[in-house]
Amino acid sequence: MDPFMQQLEEQEQALEQIRHKLALLPDMPGCYLMKNSEGTIIYVGKAKVLKNRVRSYFIGSHNGKTQRLVSEIRDFEYIVTGSNMEALILECNLIKKHMPRYNVLLKDDKTFPYLKITNEKHPRLEVTRRVLKDKAKYFGPYPNSYAAHQTKKLLDRMYPLRKCGVMPKEVCLYYHMGQCLAPCVKDIGKEQYDEISQEIGSFLSGGHEEIKKDLQRKMQEAAEDLYFERAKELRDQVIAIDAIMEKQKITMADARDRDVFGFAIDKGWMCVQILYMRQGKMIERHVSTFPFYGEAYSDFMSYVTQYYSDNPALPQEILLPEMPKELLIGEHDTDSAHLHDVNTPEHGQAAVTSESTQEEQPLEANPVMAAEPLVAETRVAYEASTAEETKSDAADELHSEAETEAANAKLPSEQEDPSQMAAALQEWLEIKVHIPQRGLKRQMITMALDNARVALEEKFRLIERNEERTSKASEGLGRWIGLEQLRRIEAFDNSNIQGTNPVSAMIVFTDGKPDKKEYRKYKVRSVEGPDDYETMREVIRRRYERVLKENLTQPDLIVVDGGKGQISAAVDVLENELGLFIPVCGLVKDAKHKTSQLMIGNPPEVIALPRDSQEFYLLQRIQEEVHRFAISFHREQRGKSMVTSRLDAIPGIGEKRRKLLLKHFGSLRKIKEASVEDFRPLSIGDKLANQIIAALRDEES
C-alpha cells in the first residue's frame, strides 16, 4: 500500500477511536494529555469541564497553530481532579515531567538570582540562582544579577557575616575592616547570628527606613565622640541605602509587594510582561515571548502557574488581566496581520514607558530615574488588612467583581472562567490574586498590557527588518556583479592538514539567509596531497554532475574560497566539462584570514565593494559559514582516522572488534586504563587484552 494512503488510513482509525472516547468524557474538572502517533505526549491542558474542553479540539475550525497541534493528535488521556486548584497544580507538574512540544515551557525564566542566608553553623550571605529545600532563607527574585550583587555588596558592609567559603586558620582582612565576626578564631553564639539574619530580613522586606535611622543615630554618636572615620563609614552606608532604594520608577499609595501581569498575542505568538512592584514601587519588568498552540488565556495562566511553582519568594498580591474581549466574542484570529490591543482600557490609556507615566496623576513618579533597580522581594503571606485599603478601593473591587462576573457570563462553554482560575491560583499560593477592572491597579495592568503589545510589535518589526536587510543585501550584491537576479548562492571551501583527510563543504544562502537543509559535505577521492585547485575541480564536478543528472535547482552564483586559481579551476570544469555557464566569484582573505576582496570574471578582476556595506557583510557571513562547516567536517574525519589507525594497528583487532571496544569503553583513554578483567565480557581473551593495553600505552609514551 502507498505510504501516504496507509498513513491516511491510520489517521482515520485513530480519529474513530477518539470519537468513541469523546462520548465517555465526564462533566468534571481535570487534566488532559494529547498524544501523537508514537504515543508521545505533545500537549497537556486543564479544564473545569473535561467534556466541553477536549471536544472543542475536534469540533469546528481553529487558527493555524492550533490546527497543527490537532493534526498530530492520535489519542488522549485524562485525569479527573476534585477541584480547579488540583487541576492547576497537576497541569503544572505534568508539563514539567513530560515537557510537551506544544505547551508553554519556562526554560530559562526561573533562573532569577536570589539572596540567600545559608543554613550553617556560621551562615554566609550569597547570591544564588538555585533554590533548594535546605532550610536557608531566600530573598528575591531580583530582576537581574547586577541588582542582587549590588545589594549583597551593601549588606556585606553593614552586617559582619562570614565571607569565606572554607574556614581559614586565622583572621582575614574582613575582620580588621569590621565586616566579619571571625568565627575561625572566636566562638560566635547562635543568638548573634539570628539577630543579624533578622535585621537582614527586615532590611530586604522593606524595613530599610528604620535601619537607616539607626545608622544615622550611630553616625551622630560617632561624630560627637570624635570618631570621624567611623562616622564617615556610617555616612557612606546611609548614602548607599538611599542610592539603592531610590532607584525606583513608579509608586502607588500603599506599600504592598505586587506582581502585575499582562499579555499580548499575535500570529501565534504570546508576549507576557511582569511588572515587579516592591513596597509600592515598580522596580523592574520581565519579558517572555513564545509560541502558543492552545487557548490563549489558558496558556497564559499555564505560564503564570509554572512561574510560581518553584518560586520561594511570593509577593503579597498578584494582579492578572481579564479575558481579552476578542476571545470573549470568539472573533480573535491569532494569524491575522493586525496586532490586537489586548484588554484596551475604558478608563484612559496608561503609558508604555516609565518616563511618560510621570505625567499621569494617579501614579507618582520618582524623580530619580535609574537603569538598574536594586530592591528584592521576600516571601510574605498575604494578610488581609482592610485598614490599609480605603473605602473607595473596596468599592472599586466590589464593582470589579460584578463586571468580571458579567464578562464571564459571555464565555463560550469550552473556555475556562478567568475568575475561577484566579481563585484556584489564590487557593494554591495562599496569597491574594485579583483581576482589577478600574482604579490604580487597573492602570498598572494596562501598563503591563501595553508593554507586552509593544514588545511583540518590536519582535515582528525586527524580524521583518532583518529579512528586508538580508534580501536587499543579496539584491545589491547581484547589481555589483552584473546579475539581474541573485537569490541562490552556493559556496565551497576545502580543508586538509598537509593533504591528510582532505574534505570539502558546500553551503547555500537563499535570499541572503543560510539554508542549512541544502548544505553538503564531500570526502575528496581523487586528489593526493595538498592540492587546493584539483580538490576544487573534483568537488565542483561532483556537485554539478549531480545537479544536471537529478535536475536540481541551479545557483545564481557560485562562491569559492580563494582567488584566481580556484576561480579558474571551477570555471574550467563548469564550462568545458559540463556546459554550464554559472557566474563564479572568489573571496580572497587578508593576512589576518579575514574577508578582503571579491573577485569575479575571466580573467578574474577585483570588485571594489565598500567594506561597511551590507553586501560586504553578507560575503563575510558566507565565507565564515562555509569555513566553519568545512573545518568541523574535517575535524570529524581526522578524529575518526586517528581512532582507526591506533586500534587497527593492533594484531587481532578488526572493524567489528574495534566498534565493540569503543561502544563498550567509550574512548581510547578508557580502553588504555582498563584492566584485563574488563575485556572478558566482550569475549576477548587475556592475551589479546594485554596486547591491546600494551600497544596503546606504548604509543602514548
From TrEMBL:
<dbReference type="Pfam" id="PF08459">
    <property type="entry name" value="UvrC_RNaseH_dom"/>
</dbReference>
<dbReference type="InterPro" id="IPR036876">
    <property type="entry name" value="UVR_dom_sf"/>
</dbReference>
<feature type="domain" description="GIY-YIG">
    <location>
        <begin position="27"/>
        <end position="104"/>
    </location>
</feature>
<keyword id="KW-0742">SOS response</keyword>
<keyword id="KW-0227">DNA damage</keyword>
<dbReference type="Pfam" id="PF22920">
    <property type="entry name" value="UvrC_RNaseH"/>
</dbReference>
<dbReference type="InterPro" id="IPR001943">
    <property type="entry name" value="UVR_dom"/>
</dbReference>
<dbReference type="InterPro" id="IPR038476">
    <property type="entry name" value="UvrC_RNase_H_dom_sf"/>
</dbReference>
<keyword id="KW-0267">Excision nuclease</keyword>
<dbReference type="GO" id="GO:0005737">
    <property type="term" value="C:cytoplasm"/>
</dbReference>
<feature type="region of interest" description="Disordered">
    <location>
        <begin position="337"/>
        <end position="370"/>
    </location>
</feature>
<dbReference type="InterPro" id="IPR004791">
    <property type="entry name" value="UvrC"/>
</dbReference>
<dbReference type="InterPro" id="IPR010994">
    <property type="entry name" value="RuvA_2-like"/>
</dbReference>
<comment type="subunit">
    <text>Interacts with UvrB in an incision complex.</text>
</comment>
<dbReference type="Pfam" id="PF14520">
    <property type="entry name" value="HHH_5"/>
</dbReference>
<comment type="function">
    <text>The UvrABC repair system catalyzes the recognition and processing of DNA lesions. UvrC both incises the 5' and 3' sides of the lesion. The N-terminal half is responsible for the 3' incision and the C-terminal half is responsible for the 5' incision.</text>
</comment>
<dbReference type="GO" id="GO:0009380">
    <property type="term" value="C:excinuclease repair complex"/>
</dbReference>
<feature type="domain" description="UVR">
    <location>
        <begin position="209"/>
        <end position="244"/>
    </location>
</feature>
<feature type="region of interest" description="Disordered">
    <location>
        <begin position="383"/>
        <end position="421"/>
    </location>
</feature>
<dbReference type="GO" id="GO:0009381">
    <property type="term" value="F:excinuclease ABC activity"/>
</dbReference>
<feature type="domain" description="UvrC family homology region profile">
    <location>
        <begin position="260"/>
        <end position="574"/>
    </location>
</feature>
<dbReference type="Pfam" id="PF01541">
    <property type="entry name" value="GIY-YIG"/>
</dbReference>
<keyword id="KW-0963">Cytoplasm</keyword>
<dbReference type="GO" id="GO:0009432">
    <property type="term" value="P:SOS response"/>
</dbReference>
<feature type="compositionally biased region" description="Basic and acidic residues">
    <location>
        <begin position="388"/>
        <end position="402"/>
    </location>
</feature>
<comment type="similarity">
    <text>Belongs to the UvrC family.</text>
</comment>
<keyword id="KW-0228">DNA excision</keyword>
<dbReference type="InterPro" id="IPR047296">
    <property type="entry name" value="GIY-YIG_UvrC_Cho"/>
</dbReference>
<dbReference type="GO" id="GO:0006289">
    <property type="term" value="P:nucleotide-excision repair"/>
</dbReference>
<dbReference type="GO" id="GO:0003677">
    <property type="term" value="F:DNA binding"/>
</dbReference>
<dbReference type="Pfam" id="PF02151">
    <property type="entry name" value="UVR"/>
</dbReference>
<dbReference type="InterPro" id="IPR000305">
    <property type="entry name" value="GIY-YIG_endonuc"/>
</dbReference>
<protein>
    <recommendedName>
        <fullName>UvrABC system protein C</fullName>
    </recommendedName>
</protein>
<dbReference type="InterPro" id="IPR035901">
    <property type="entry name" value="GIY-YIG_endonuc_sf"/>
</dbReference>
<dbReference type="InterPro" id="IPR001162">
    <property type="entry name" value="UvrC_RNase_H_dom"/>
</dbReference>
<keyword id="KW-0234">DNA repair</keyword>
<dbReference type="InterPro" id="IPR050066">
    <property type="entry name" value="UvrABC_protein_C"/>
</dbReference>
